[in-house]
Amino acid sequence: MLRQIGLAKALVNFSELFDPHNAVENVHSQTRRMVMVSPEPNFWINVSIELPKIAQSSTTTSKSNAAGSKAKSKGKEKEASSATKPAPVTYDYEDGAIHDTVIQAQLLQGYERFKLLHGSFSSILNDLGQEALELQLERFFTVWAWTWNLEDKAELSEHLGTRLHPYFSILMPLLDGYSSLLPDPVIPVLFLRPYIIPSSRYTAAKFPETLAQHLLTMIPAPHGEDNMSASIDTIRALSPTGDPSGPNIFGIPGVNMEVMDVRKWNWTSYLTFGKGSSSSSHKSTPSFSEKQSQEGQNPSAEVQPESQPEPGSESTSNVETQVDPKALEDALSENVPTTNSIGDASADPAETVTTQDNPFDAADPDQCQELLRVAVSSSPNSSLTMSPTARNMSYRPESPPTPPEPPEFSLLNVRLAPASDPISTSRRTVHFYTRNGLLLALLGVDEMGEKEGILGTTEDDVLALAAEHADELFDTVELNIEKVSESKLAESLPSATKLLQASDRFIISTGQYTVSTPEFASQSSHLHNAKSLLRKDPDVLEVFSRGQNPQYWHVARRGLAGHDAVDHDDSTPSRDGEMYLEVFRKEATLPDVDNVLAGSLRKSGVAENGLI
């Protein structure tokens, strides 16, 4: 480790003798790659990576060694010993497997994350001292280094910016309207994993990309299947048709509990465990279908009770009474409508009602009706339904609906620095509120002055105002996303052209955000090399390359604002924005590729929304 640090320091000091402003950034050797980054003045991050290697085949080496030994050897023993001696293993190192720009971007991303959570190196050194800086560096970068997987191929879009929502041109004005209700120092921003919906204030503030990535991790993951319910479904061993009544894992037929009515289990003569049960209670009870057949043969006959308990038994506490629904309907006139949901509609089977006394001796008709409703609902085979009439219902005025409580914002402490001085980090508080996968973050609330008597100046007043309109903003955003998704549903349907020919894909980087086609995921070495050229030479504006097999086009362009646009700081042409394009058409020419690039930039809408 000390040897690598000493070598890196010597190379940096030697290169600064020739150009103090452009120090050495990487060193290539046959087996290793050394990359150095200076995130702050007088601070360097150095990484030494061993290149991936492939062992060469030993057949060619052994044959050449055997031929040379036969020519030089003078005895058979020397020939045999030289022939049996194993040849040394040689390796081929893949120098193009690691891209310097990717390693530098990953190192800078780790530094920016450390600065967001702890502060810059200089601020920690000035405030807490060298020992505290060493302790925080060790705690953070030890964990970060173990999570750094260099074997995965780098995606081009990982370090170009946070992904904008596909419908950002429709959603950004909604957020700007919400921000107009808040004081000027308050900066709102919306997140919908993995996208960002920034406001104009957030774009102008130029916050670091790591802040957006960190806030995206605060969105709760969607609720998956409950582990307990999954275990129950596994034990039940549901059939492919989803019928839970199929055989379970023990081979026993299951019971569908959803369609079984427990109230129809006629267990009056069972589960007595021999207490007060008579011999008549163990006789077979006719089924409901047999009762219907008997009623069909003799409609005028009345169904008698199934069993008569003995006077001295415990079951004599309840008296079974025979009730005819038709007679009850005539007695209660129009107050009791009857329905028969089982059996023939013309037949009126008798209902068995179990009561202690005769419930219809009461003088009050309302009480009689209530007793009848309770008795019928407790009958095992009852299908009689009752609904109170308007004259028996007491008038209760409806209370007004209780308004929902305003949402509460959570707190998150980060370290941020102004764009003019990226080293002077200070503690800032971010207020955020999540609902249905959406996250609304407010920055700058803690910077509000303590002016009393003016609404919207104190922190509590700002949070109350923001919470009052937060749910309305979420509803509007969700509604617009649903409408636009339905309108573009027809465009997403596959056609013959889309199935037979691969679509062109692109990604546009504005420095803070990226806009890309949904299927963009490129690991092309052509685009990585083009990105490296754009970083090294500021005079390079376009890079065109074409592969051999397959013959696809790979394009990189810088300065998307146009040749007439100028930077805000000086009169030099604007370099804002980069675009990377892949054209999967062999017959496409260079003018065709340029037209595709211009059309994709125009359809993206980044220039119309002032993002470049």
TrEMBL record:
Could you tell me the Gene Ontology terms of the biological process aspect for this record? vesicle-mediated transport
Q: Outline the segment boundaries, as ranges, of region: Disordered.
A: 58-87, 274-322, 336-364, 376-407
Give the signal sequence positions: none
> Where do Low complexity bias regions lie?
58-70, 274-289, 377-389
For bias kind Pro residues, which ranges apply?
398-407
Please give the GO cellular component terms listed in this UniProt entry: Mon1-Ccz1 complex
Any one Pfam family match given in the protein's UniProt record, by short name: Intu_longin_1
**Similarity section:** Belongs to the CCZ1 family.
Which protein, by its recorded name, is this? Answer: CCZ1/INTU/HSP4 first Longin domain-containing protein
Q: What's the source species' lineage?
A: Eukaryota, Fungi, Dikarya, Basidiomycota, Agaricomycotina
